[in-house]
Amino acid sequence: MKNRLVILGCLVTAIGVSAGCTQSTHTAYVTVPTDNSVQGYRINNSSGAFQNLPGSPFPAGLSPVSVVVHPSGHFAYAANQLGNNISIFSIDANTGALEEMKTQVSTAVSPVSLAINSSGSLLFALNSASANISVFAIASDGTLTPISGSPFASGSNPSSLVVSPSDKFLYVANPDESGVEAYTIASTGALQQVAGSPFFVAAGPIAISFDPGENFAFVADSAANSVSVETINSTTGALTEVSGSPFAAGTNPIAVTTDVKGQYVYVLNLGSSNISEFSLDPTTGFLTPIQDNSTTANPISSSTVATSSSPVFILADPNGSFFYVGSRSGNTVQEFSIDQATGVLTANSQSATTGVSPTSMSLGK
Asked: pLDDT: is 12 or 165 the higher one?
């Protein structure tokens, strides 16, 4: 059988997708606005090696800056900042290739950030120039329909939005007001601002992340060179700063994330081209810089790891082995391995060349 191999009842295709056994690879999609496209890769779960998907790069709208994969793995969505719309893609189950579906769906002005709730029923688009949030119901075929009342107002010039792990709340980082706007999410997708919102943090909040248990929110403070940590009220969604916050990071933090277990926090620093590494106290939310003593002959004390120049995004692989960092100047997606015992990240030999500046990444199945 051409390009196929049967091993112990598992069918493994030429690109590494298996049927009837544990999948050994997963897909990744990266927005490259200057090419008006989304690049696609298949990543080996064990080695971390990247392979271009057939047909990549995939045409999108004008300046796609944010991409998100539906939880089902059947669809992907790209926010086209200059087109003021969203491209909808179907994902080929065998190859991972993208095919744009039907007409692009209009948003308000300058969509810059997308998020989907965990059930896959709602998509949220943050529109920076019009200062609002478009909300869409997602049909079983992946198509989008604006919900009643959309778009919902936000503060001026918002930078990014995220949905909390419980799907109960949505948060928007707003550098202009040095605050985080919080909303409750109704079953219909309607947004209602939380009492006390916006919640003020250090200067220049630009990105937000959570621990898996939704106990804490982490905010990258781009103008303060710090990361703020906030406790989350599980009933109201209100934020309260933890003792010791904000914590010093590198220069111009631009993104923040945790490992899949929520033991460590990583802050990506655009200006200093590195990652600040912290361990997280699961009770208090206090962050402690990780001590890297990996050089046994001459132990060093450090809480940062260098990246390619001008990094713009960081995300953890759901399998827990790798982190991915997109470099604006290096035109790459760089891969890091994590030491599960210490939380220390190490750049490995795997990476993907994007050719032009990447802006976001989302992982599929």
From this structure: 165
Tell whether 136 is covered by a domain. yes
Q: Rounded to whole angstroms, how far apart are CA atoms 48 and 235?
A: 39
Within 13 Å and on the Cβ side, how many CA atoms surround 6? 3
pLDDT of the residue at 7: 29
Closest by CA to 184, choosing from 175, 193, 174, 195, is 193
Residue type, 135: V
Q: What is the pLDDT of residues 223-251, one digit of tens each?
A: 999 999 999 999 999 999 999 999 999 99
Are both 99 and 31 inside the same structural domain?
Answer: yes
Rounded Cα gap, residues 316 and 256, in angstroms: 10
* Residue the block writes with tokens 């655009």: 270
**DSSP letter string over 163-187?**
E-TTSSEEEEEEGGGTEEEEEEE-T
What is the structure's pLDDT at 295?
46
The answer as to whether 341 is a domain residue is: no
Mean pLDDT over 295-319 rounds to: 79
Residues 301-328 have a mean pLDDT of 92
> Contact at 8 Å (CB) between 205 and 222?
yes
179 with 267, same domain: the answer is yes
**What CATH number is attached to the domain comprising 94?**
2.130.10.10
Q: Whole-model pTM above 0.85?
A: yes
Residue 135 near residue 144 (C-beta atoms within 8 A): no
In the chain, the amino acid numbered 294 is: S
Tokens of 210: 């959570």
State the Cα–Cα distance between residues 7 and 294, nearest whole angstrom. Answer: 39
Torsion angle of the four alpha carbons 213, 215, 218, 219, in this order, in degrees rounded to the nearest 10? 130
Indicate whether 74 and 183 sit together in one domain. Answer: no
Q: How confident is the model at residue 303 (pLDDT cuts 50, 70, 90)?
A: confident
